[in-house]
Amino acid sequence: MELDIAGKNFVVCGASQGIGRAVALALAEEGANVLLAARNEGKLEEVSEEIGAAASTCAADLSNASGVDKLVAATEDFDGLDGILINGGGPPFGSAFGLSDDEWEKAFRVLIGSPVRLLRALEPTLNEGSSVLFVTSSSVRQPIKDLDASNVLRPGVAALVKVLSQSLGPKTRVNSVAPGRIATERSKSLDESRAREFGISLEEQRANFSRNIPLSRYGEPEELARAAAFLMSPAASYITGVSLQVDGGLITSVP
Ligand SMILES: NC(=O)c1ccc[n+]([C@@H]2O[C@H](COP(=O)([O-])OP(=O)(O)OC[C@H]3O[C@@H](n4cnc5c(N)ncnc54)[C@H](OP(=O)(O)O)[C@@H]3O)[C@@H](O)[C@H]2O)c1
């Protein structure tokens, strides 16, 4: 199957590591140009060097308006955009009452406010047949213990995907991928805090959690990236408004 994205232009948010980095590599492997955005300039440069001439970087903090505006300005070198990956660090761990007002507000900005600001600005530059993909979480279907900002706000992101798919079609498709447990720095830090709570090692915590996953293991970022590259490509030309779980079967709800 051809993804047909060679020479096309993509913005990848949260591209310095983890899922975003893997998506950037997958798109570039198919010949796409990628603008990599995240805060850590050094790490972005490493990913850019790995990709080569098809990559450019924009160091920006996408949790605030000025960082979003900096990324918008960096896209001006492109002759139109064919895809945008909305992805970032995710909300803080904590319970509904344990999170401070500031943490709630920042989580809203990161998950909803900044993506809306970014897409509002970039929508006029999106080409016919373009695609926006949000990285969400299994919390869109099932709450995760001690991640209440995600449990509350991620379903709102899924709703945002649905309303944008209605307003941006037929020019642009809008979808999301919902990771279960993917082996990245973020899942490691979640497991480290659980391991401390239970007085067990990180490896034991991972093994225990993997027993809840029908495929019995964490996913690799590259496994999620393949699904993301497909959804962002013209190969997925009749798919919009969906949330695709990439979770090894973790979510048990039907449908
Ligand atoms: N991994 C999983 O199992 C899993 C499961 C469910 C949901 N998710 C969600 O998937 C997303 C990606 O997760 P991941 O595991 O790839 O996380 P990760 O390894 O921590 O990577 C997060 C990326 O986002 C960037 N980032 C963080 N804050 C940012 C900011 N304010 N502005 C710009 N860039 C920012 C980071 O780079 P800088 O630090 O350089 O800015 C990094 O490139 C998160 O929203 C996470 O909640 C992941």
CATH class: Alpha Beta
Classify the secondary structure makeup into a structural class.
Answer: alpha/beta
3D shape: globular
Number of helices: 8
Summed up, what is this model?
The chain is an alpha/beta fold and 255 residues long. It contains eight helices and seven strands.
3D structure, described in words:
- Helix content is 44%, strand content 17%.
- The protein is an alpha/beta fold and 255 residues long.
- It has one domain: Rossmann fold.
- Strands 3-2-1-4-5-6-7 form a 7-stranded parallel sheet, with helices on both faces.
- Helix 3 (65-74) packs parallel to helix 4 and helix 4 runs parallel beside helix 5.
- 44% of the residues are buried.
- The mean pLDDT is 97.
- The site of NADP nicotinamide-adenine-dinucleotide phosphate has 28 residues, from helix 1 and helix 6.
Secondary structure layout:
Blueprint: E1 9-13, H1 18-29, E2 33-38, H2 41-51, E3 55-59, H3 65-74, E4 81-86, H4 101-122, E5 126-135, H5 148-168, E6 172-179, H6 185-198, H7 202-210, H8 221-232, E7 243-246
Parallel strand pairs: 1-2, 1-4, 2-3, 4-5, 5-6, 6-7
